[in-house]
Amino acid sequence: MIELLKQPWPWYVSGPIIGLSVPILLLWGNKMLGISSSLRHTCAAIYPGSVSFLKYNWKEEIWSFVFALGVLIGGFIGGILLSNGEPVNISPETVADIKELGINSFNGLLPEDIFSWSSLFTLRGFIIMVFGGFLIGFGSRYAGGCTSGHAIMGISSLQWPSLVAVIFFFIGGLLMTHIITPWFYSLF
Amino acid sequence: MKYIKYLIVGTLFGLTLTKTEAVSWFRIQEMFRFQSFHMYGIIGSAIAVAMISLLIIKRYKIKSLHGEEIVIPDKKFNKGIIFGGTIFGMGWALAGACPGPLYALIGSGYLSISVVILSALIGTWTYSYLRPKLPH
User: Fewer Cβ in 10 A, N or C end of chain A?
Assistant: First the structure.
């Protein structure tokens, strides 16, 4: 059983489990799935300053911190305790494309060429980690949600603005992957 | 103790994201290059299962375990969905992760991802600060 769990989970197992988290959260706690809100609540808790968007009773949202902590623990169980130590089994075409960008480490979940402390002190690594993170935080709040809140919770509850959001997530992602990324990586 | 349920659901969520490799920068690259069905299968089947569950909850007016009525407020459209959505998508493709996976990656031992989370917090704060001046 443990050996089976250690194998990468196919989409038709993981997708339904992720989908079930929506009714479980609703029925168990009357809460809506959405992870990027935890970033806003963290800002509100740590330093709201004079920003009215961050002035509210964040203590009512403590559940979202606990949920985020759970996601972290889940990452520990899945990424360390149940890790099979194999590289991610991406398609050969993707491997070729990534090599063309100048990335050669294929071990683990992330390429160490980019995501490591030493990479943070290179211009390429710094931009990817710091500017990339900034866009994630800025954009998800501006759009009112991220992949969980819009793509899963929003579309499944038949909210057309969430479908629009996901379409633009993809427009931004395709622009980055196919136009900006090849140019950006070629600079280094 | 009233929060323990969120810890349990969060753990299952994070474990699943990690074991299905949705937290992997490599999988996000593959998705945006349309070179595998994997990520589309995950997102698509998650939406389908959530949608069916919500239709059942609505159809049978199922209440929460505490007896509360389940009401999902409508998301209102505004231009921020377009601008913010595009910006978020660029970050998703550049850093190869969205907020859930970022937390899971810390747990998986990629501690340098804390820099990405800190930057996402700064991005969230900056948006909040500029919000009155941005088109919505």
Answer: N
The mean per-residue pLDDT over the stretch A69-97 comes to 97
Q: How much is the pLDDT for A142?
A: 98
Is A122 an 8 Å CB contact of chain B? no
Query: Which of the 8 DSSP states describes residue A128?
Result: I
| Residue A51, C-beta contacts closer than 8 angstroms, at least 6 positions apart | B125, B128, B129, B131
Establish if A77 touches chain B: CB-CB under 8 angstroms.
yes
pLDDT of residue B1: 77
Those residues whose C-beta lies under 8 Å from the C-beta of residue B23, and which sit 6 or more positions away, are A75, A79, A109, B17, B97, B100, B101, B104, B105, B108
Those residues with Cβ within 8 angstroms of residue B129's Cβ, 6 or more apart along the chain or in another chain: A49, A51, A53
* Least Cα separation, residue B41 to chain A (angstroms): 5
Q: Which of A21, A131, A168 is opposite residue B85, by nearest beta carbon? A: A168
Q: Which of A101, A120, A117 is nearest to A184 (CA)?
A: A101
Rounded CA-CA distance A42/A163 in Å is 27
HEC per residue, B93-129: HHHCCCHHHHHHHHHCCCCCHHHHHHHHHHHHHHHHH
The pLDDT > 90 percentage for chain A reads 97
A173 CB neighbours in chain B (<8 A) are 32, 89-90, 92-93
Contact residues on chain B for A86, CB-CB shorter than 8 A = none
pLDDT digits (tens, 9 = 90+) for A3-18: 899 999 999 999 999 9
| Chains A–B, number of C-beta pairs less than 8 Å apart | 500
Q: What share of chain B is helix, strand, coil (3-state, %, to 5)?
A: 70, 0, 30
Which of A8, A16, A78 faces B15 most closely, judged by CB atoms?
Answer: A78
Q: Do B3 and A66 lie within an 8 Å CB cutoff? A: yes
0.90 exceeded by pTM: yes
Q: Give me the interface pTM, i.e. the ipTM.
A: 0.97
